[in-house]
Amino acid sequence: MPTTIRLRHSISLHRNALITLPNVRSVTSGIPLPRKSRLARTTSVAPMIDVTNPHFLHLLRLISSSHTLYSEMVHANAIIKNAPSPSSPASLYRFIGDPHPDTVVQLGGSDPEQMARAAKIVEQVGFGEVNVNVGCPSDRVQHGCFGVVLMKTPDRVASILDAMHAHGVHIPVTVKCRIGVDDLDSYEYLCHFLSTLLRSSLPPTHVIVHARKAWLHGLSPKQNRTVPPLDYERVWRLAKEFHGLVVTANGGFDTVEKVRSGLERCDGIMIGRKVMDEPMFLQTLDRELHNIPPTALRPISEIIDRYVGLCITISTHAFSTHNPAYNATIYYAPSQRHTPSLSLLLKPLSMLRTGGAGRRFRRCLGEAMVEGKRNEWALRKVVEVALEKAEEMGAMDMAEGVETEEDVAEEVKEAVVA
Question: DUS-like FMN-binding domain: which residues (predicted)?
């Protein structure tokens, strides 16, 4: 039996939920047909360690509601140890935030029992989807035998899925992986890896593929995001041949045109560093890709105001916008209460603007936080003072002719968004 037909046969045997759509590219005929996505949201924000924490996700929701958001990777043990209890009902929220229909919780780990218990807890607190990390290349993650190193042992990943099924996990379980790892980088191996998962008792409903291989030694995590070349064609081929499997491509999608082009070849596009560096890019996608009128999008001023309001609620309720389990100040919170610090709450705001305007605001925000702690200012006053000082600095730079072309372009861009 030819390889392609054998793979398709394997999928059909083990995936009742998979469907073959007539408008997906035909494997047998080779005739390219327009692809229709099977995702409610075709664009998503990638899980990023120390970036996509609950506070950054709050900010992204205020910017746009059109995209699926992924939590930063959380180890299964952290979920289990912080499971809600009568004595600590809100401790889990500091890792994954409040349940939202747009949010997927990414789990890290290699022990099937722990991963299954963690997935069940995530389901019980109200999240609608979990993702298994099989793509992170960091040394720390490797030493824990999870992340992209798991691509070397597909049977282990299948065991994790089997355990989730045994624990009665009913929400969708997805997998994020690379196109290869070390010398296991052939297309045939990638197909073998996915086919093994699809033969589990809980086959993934959706796979997100970073279009780069990973080197476990010799490259840092940052280098693994840039040095291995992108191979989109491998992902497109995967989407074509595993046409019953929902496939999202990840890696290097930093313009609207790249995203639009990618969506012609697979179901979804995941965006990472571009959103970290420029969160308002989500509104660019809304206008130019999702055809949302500019008048329906929030201006930056309203986003900041609403985010500060959320921060005030979170600082009172300890990481949860609806669970008043704790009550402590953001400056002198007892460590056992896990109340978020002012710097943690306001870090997402410092990422909101780019260029000269962003640099000025970050500087003024840092100074206002120091002064605010000394004088015990309310959180809103810290942000208001930073905004006022940043505007004054910008006006002075313009008057003195210091403003760069980058600054001017940024101001024009913000005016268009507003």
Answer: 45-295
